[in-house]
Write a structure and sequence with these properties.
Layout: H1 26-34, H2 42-55, E1 64-74, E2 80-90, H3 92-106, E3 110-112, E4 116-118, E5 124-125, E6 137-144, E7 147-154, H4 155-158, H5 169-173, H6 175-191, H7 193-196, E8 200-201, H8 202-205, H9 234-243, H10 249-260, H11 272-288, H12 291-300, H13 327-339, H14 344-355, H15 367-382, H16 386-401
Parallel strand pairs: 2-8
Antiparallel strand pairs: 1-2, 3-6, 4-5, 4-6, 6-7
Helix pairs in contact: 3-6, 9-11, 10-12, 13-15, 14-16, 15-16
Length: about 400
């Protein structure tokens, strides 16, 4: 006859938090560091220990844990510095356990209503269909001794995203489930504020780890160039931006190349000495008349030994035939926009900025406007850093449009 042997786990281990204990032991502190609670101050650990004792959750079974996140604050001298702020978190199951233990301790009844989701037309539904897209919000009601505590969680406030602003994998796969857990956590905290104060669930706090969105393209011209050894300085770039205000980006490159006696594809190629020389030359031009007119005259003047340039066509008089962009130009524009990774969402805004007027479609451009836009974008593509060159072009266009 086979004898059955049962296993009885030990009631105490080196990680067991005893009833009479008032702080983490050295062995427990080392174990916390091993599972990710590291670089925490003694004050943070003391607060964490207090919450662990109050909730009865086991940090070594990962029922509750503390996460450090970077934040910015001013030091004693008034300078902004990076500091680590600790947040105590648990999962939704931890919330349920804490709430039910609290209800059992006081002899109260507890019940949780099924979640509901809000559609974009404002109606609440008990089941979510992926065909409806993303829910606007979710709500959950918890009844403590019959008293309802209803919490609503707005999707946009809790969603977890990637750098480009799109949802991460978990929130893409089950958006309704994720936002419902956030609503339930908020309802538990409303029903049991004393037991759940300053404790948050992973689903609620995940948005705190959202990476910053990529910088918008429209940065001011004075901040686009980072100072570096032997290259144009930020102060020089700012001065050039002031001197060349009102001159389009293509002509800026041409006049720069003419004055410093070498071809460039971007102002960032200038050395500090070349920038100084260019500033002096432009200041001399500005003293002789409006800088835009002086640049135009200098660029139009024939080089020594060359024939006089053909006269420019006369400006179109009112009533003349409008010359729309050609299909070849539209195709070319689409090609350069694609190469610069400019999507439909920002295409019209960027093209309109470069054309110096608002447009609703690229077909709004006339033949001259689209030609100038294509030339500018082509110049950006030829730059060693096309995206940065596009930032320059947009910043210059913004400056001119603000006049």
């Amino acid at each position: 006859m086979t004898e059955m042997v049962t296993y009885t786990p030990p009631s105490q281990t080196a990680l067991t938090i005893a009833d009479e204990q008032h702080q983490f032991t050295e062995a427990q502190t080392q174990a916390l560091a091993h599972i990710g609670v590291e670089n925490a101050s003694q004050g943070d650990l003391a607060v964490f220990f207090h919450v662990v004792k109050r909730t009865g959750l086991d940090p070594f079974a990962r029922q509750i844990y503390m996460i450090g996140r970077q934040a910015s604050e001013k030091d004693a001298q008034g300078n902004w510095v990076k500091v680590t702020k600790q947040t105590i978190q648990t999962g939704i199951d931890g919330y349920r356990l804490i709430g039910r233990r609290a209800a059992a301790r006081t002899g109260e009844t507890i019940s949780v209503d099924a979640p509901e989701w809000c559609r974009d037309n404002g109606t609440w539904v008990p089941v979510w269909s992926a065909a409806w897209g993303l829910p606007i919000a979710a709500r959950v009601t918890i009844r403590r001794d019959g008293q309802p505590f209803t919490a609503v969680a707005n999707f946009d406030e809790y969603k977890q995203t990637k750098r480009d602003g799109s949802l991460n994998a978990m929130w893409t796969q089950r958006p309704a489930g994720q936002i419902a857990k956030c609503a339930e956590a908020a309802a538990w905290r409303m029903a049991f504020p004393q037991d759940l104060a300053d404790i948050y669930t992973d689903d609620e706090m995940g948005q705190a780890d959202n990476p910053p969105l990529a910088k918008p393209r429209r940065e001011r011209a004075a901040t686009l160039l980072a100072p570096a050894e032997n290259v144009i300085t930020a102060e020089q770039w700012k001065r050039l931006g002031t001197l060349l205000k009102g001159v389009d980006a293509n002509k800026q490159l041409r006049i720069t190349a003419q004055l410093i006696k070498r071809e460039i594809t971007s102002p960032k190629e200038l050395t500090e000495a070349e920038a100084s020389e260019l500033i002096r030359a432009l200041e001399d031009l500005a003293n002789q008349g409006p800088i835009a007119d002086m640049v135009e005259a200098l660029l139009s003047a024939p080089e020594p030994g060359t024939a006089e340039p053909a006269p420019e066509p006369a400006a179109a008089e009112p009533g003349t035939v409008y010359k729309p962009a050609t299909q070849a130009q539209l195709t070319k524009l689409h090609t350069v926009l694609t190469k610069l990774d400019i999507g439909d969402g920002e295409k019209h805004q960027i093209v309109g900025t470069l054309a110096r007027r608002e447009i609703s479609t690229t077909k709004d451009l006339n033949r001259d406007e689209i030609g100038r836009v294509i030339d500018t974008l082509d110049g950006c593509l030829k730059d060693s850093d096309p995206q940065r060159a596009l930032d320059f072009a947009l910043a210059n266009a913004d400056e001119e449009g603000a006049q």
